[in-house]
Amino acid sequence: MRNLYLLGATGSIGTQALNIIRENQDYRVLGISFYNNISLGKEIIKEFKPELVWVKNEEIKRDLEKEFPKVKIYFGKEGMIDFASYKKPGLVLNALTGSSGLLPTYYAIKSKKDILLANKESLVIGGKLIIDLARKMKVSIFPLDSEHNSIYQLLRKENKEDVKKVYLTASGGALRDKNREELKSVTKAEVLNHPNWKMGDKITVDSATLINKGFEVIEAYHLFGLELNQIDTVLHRESIVHALVEYKDSTVLANLSYPNMEIPISYALSYPKRRKTSVASLDLGKLKSLNFEKIDYERYPLLKLSFEVLKKGEAKQIAYSASNEAAVNLFLAGKISFLEIEQIVIEAVKKDYPKFEISLDNILDLDLEIKKEIYEKYK
User: Fold this and answer.
1) By C-alpha distance, which of 340, 349, 370, 344 is closest to 307?
2) What is the architecture, at CATH level 2, of domain 2-143?
């Protein structure tokens, strides 16, 4: 039985991973982290009996130590480093949201643990750092995003040299049928009402602006070692086709399933084998048609911006991610409008940033600096 460190245990990806583990009994949940959902976190500790737990502050740590005296409880930055670097081998499933996911990804790789990666920002702001370190430590990074997981499957038994282009599909999010004028007055409830997927708030907002697809472009660039002109996106409202790969002979392979994260999570946890899931088999006759459209970059400027920041280096990629994370938090708190998210990101990316040596500290320092400036402006 393999050990699993589960970061973000109470979130959407984390709870689905625990459901799969509960059903199959093939992993020992050695460590978990959680942030705000304390009651669910305690239930997980009682059921799965992890050896170590990370929480957001010392107050929660003290509370858990009283209730679970045999569990090692960590908090804060140093605690997360200790958690990710823990001596026992195992897989690390990183389902954290935002740039906070980079630190444990980095230290888990340093301690030679393979990564199941759902945290986009690890590669968006730290792509070169993380990929170079993984190669050095001979660690594998297995993508959990439905799109990258699909590309991984489509490339698995093919020659990379034969790849002409990969296509990331996008549903268009909750606001896909609204024009720019209508976007001026959309509500938080409208933005969070995704037509196809059940996800956390941040990724649902990111799906509405399509910056999530921009992140995925950057992730694909780093994960699969592709050239920028080998990556494209396409609007696919049904979310049945998760990715496509075109080969040099003009053959196109696609990965299809109903939109349910249980499939990529299960595949990652059982790889190289597959196992039965609770997801229904695809009924092609019932579907009747699958639709694809070119994405209008004027309608979704943050997606277009992803290709530009990839050409301009790490500082711009950090600005792209950090400004969006701050802007989405402000939107969810009711402090800015939906379209102001775009304005904040575009303004942040336009700024000049000094060249810097690529290191974990330098990346996280710039990420924090950009966020602080934005929060100060809108406090």
Assistant:
1) 349
2) 3-Layer(aba) Sandwich (3.40)
Residue with tokens 């490339």: 155
pLDDT per residue as tens digits for the range 48-96: 999 999 999 999 999 999 999 999 999 999 999 999 999 999 999 999 9
Closest CA to 93 of 268, 232, 219, 221: 268
CA distance 20 to 268: 11
Q: What is the pLDDT of residues 284-314, one digit of tens each?
A: 889 889 999 999 999 999 999 999 999 999 9
123-152 core/surface letters (b: 16 or more CB in 10 A; e: else) = bbbbbebbbebbeeeebebbbbbbbbbbbb
Helices H / strands E in the chain, number of each: 18, 11
Strand order in the sheet with 91-94: 72-75, 52-55, 27-33, 2-7, 91-94, 115-117, 141-143
Contact (Cβ atoms closer than 8 angstroms) between residue 27 and residue 269: yes
- Cα separations (Å) of 14 from 6, 19, 36, 92, 96? 7, 9, 14, 12, 9
DSSP helix/strand/coil, 3: strand
What are the tokens at 373? 């400036």
Listed by start position, the domains of the chain span: 2-143, 147-310, 312-379
Residues 6+ apart with CB under 8 A from 308: 316, 349
19's CB contacts (< 8 A; 6+ apart) are: 262
Contact yes or no for 263/188 (Cβ under 8 A): no
Cα separation, 23 vs 17, whole angstroms: 10
Got the DSSP string for 100-166? GGHHHHHHHHHTT--EEE--THHHHTTHHHHHHHHHHHT--EEE-SHHHHHHHHHHTTS-GGGEEEE
- The residue type of 84 is A
- Copy the structure tokens of residue 246: 């075109």
Q: What share of the chain is helix, strand, coil (3-state, %, to 5)?
A: 50, 15, 35
Secondary element (H or E) of residue 307: helix 301-311
**pTM score, whole prediction:** 0.94
Record: fold of 312-379: Rna Polymerase Sigma Factor; Chain: A (1.10.1740)
